[in-house]
Amino acid sequence: MTGKMWQVREQVKNEISRNTNTKVNFLEFINQNQADITLLVSEANKLYQEGKFGECAKIFRQLARITKELEFNCESKGKYSDQNTLNDLTGKEWLRHTKSWLVVDGKPSDIVHDIKNHPASFPPALVNHFIEFFTKKGDWVFDPFMGIGSVLKSAQDLQRNCWGIELNEDYQKFALNRVKSNGSLFLDVTNGDARNTVYLWEKTQHPKFGFVITSPPYWDMLGKSRGGVKSPLKQRVENGLDEKYSENPHDIGNISDLNRYLEELYTIFTDIKPILKPKAYIVVILQNIRTQSGEMEPIAWKFAELMRKSFSLQQEFIWCQDQKFMGIWGYPKVYVSNLHHHYCLVFQNK
């Protein structure tokens, strides 16, 4: 451990002894992030020596966000109100969660080798943000498109019970391998089709859910060409990794007709109403897409309009990425942006 890191640990110990109201394990936070910080600093120094100052600056921005998180964890969080029926947050923590956007890029430790075969995993920190706000410890979380288990792992880390469904059996097995056995929590993923959620739920005899969070396939985006630039998707294919989730005809990510895709997705959520508590919250992560014809399809907005038939649309939350690959799309004649944001749509069961 470096001298500077040791000083930080000592400062945190002093903060713990002074502040009895904080609920965050500061030393655990430092232990979890120390390897990431060391790796990022080393990479930044290497890029600086090579004169790649722009890439170096991006890493320093990532380090700044980790440092800011540490600073917040070292502050007093105030007192928890017994009248809080939604989550375990104090007023100060609650306020922090209500900002309508968040910059989240996966840390180096988030991307283990096996996860790299999944074409569109999302950072655990993003899932944590919503689970912390919409649930209490011991509550039940559901994900109908579990993938490789980001929601399952987050639920375990935050001491919530979690059940999910995943169509791809390889991803389902990997998701189960991500969570350690814990007798006090229920953590499971069923290999199956989200269209059959109620049938599968009745077989498990789980209680009804107060919170659902998921990131369904963004239409058939993964199967579309992104132009001549060698994008990360093309590089994945060259490296023998998955280009899309599956070839399964039941996979909604293989539906080419947008209206049919939206209707199928909407039906999945309306059909799960029997397993939801009254006033349960649902967070669906989607992205608007530029089609091959050059026009944008506002998938997230169209889906939100459909969902309003059966659910209350509470808000949109913007997840931003700062470390994502930048492609020079359309140059030098056509405007094509780099999409580095996603819509986290918040609904409530009526």
SSE blueprint and pairings:
Elements: H1 3-18, H2 26-49, H3 53-73, H4 91-97, E1 101-103, H5 124-134, E2 140-143, H6 150-157, E3 161-166, H7 169-178, E4 187-191, H8 197-204, E5 209-214, H9 232-238, H10 258-271, E6 276-286, E7 289-290, E8 296-297, H11 299-307, E9 311-320, E10 341-349
Parallel strand pairs: 1-9, 2-3, 2-5, 3-4, 5-6
Antiparallel strand pairs: 6-10, 7-8, 9-10
Q: Could you please say which CATH topology of the largest domain applies here?
A: Rossmann fold
CATH architecture of the largest domain, please?
3-Layer(aba) Sandwich
CATH superfamily annotation of the largest domain: Vaccinia Virus protein VP39
Q: What's the structural domain tally?
A: 2
The residue fraction in helices comes out at: 25-40%
Q: Report low-confidence residues grouped into runs of 5 or more.
A: 16-24
Radius of gyration: 21 Å
Mean pLDDT: 84
Instruction: Specify the structural class.
Output: alpha/beta
Number of strands: 10
Estimate the strand proportion: 15-25%
Shape: globular
Q: Order of SSEs, N→C?
A: HHHHEHEHEHEHEHHEEEHEE
| Number of helices, counting only DSSP H or I runs of 4 residues or more | 11
